[in-house]
Design a protein that fits this description.
Layout: E1 5-7, E2 11-15, E3 18-22, H1 33-41, E4 45-47, H2 58-64
Antiparallel strand pairs: 1-4, 2-3
């Protein structure tokens, strides 16, 4: 599965025939490869970071840790 792109600037896209503006910082809908490459090259989008559910599970322990001083 491809990582979604995150808009770095407000980005106009067409979804189901409707023009939408995706604000900066929000995930972009799935785009074709050429559009993704153009947005990345222009630094108008970036790859989304890994989420807690992906990878080796190292984030799972941090999510269940008890804050210092709390029991």
């Amino acid at each position: 599965m491809k990582k979604p792109l995150i808009a770095q600037v407000a980005t106009a896209v067409v979804v189901d025939g409707q023009r939408q503006i995706i604000p900066a910082g929000q995930p972009l809908p799935e785009l074709d490869t050429a559009d993704e490459a153009a947005l990345l090259a222009a630094k108008a989008a970036r790859q989304a970071p890994e989420t807690a559910g992906e990878g080796d599970g190292a984030h799972a322990a941090a999510a269940t840790a008890v804050p210092k001083g709390k029991k």
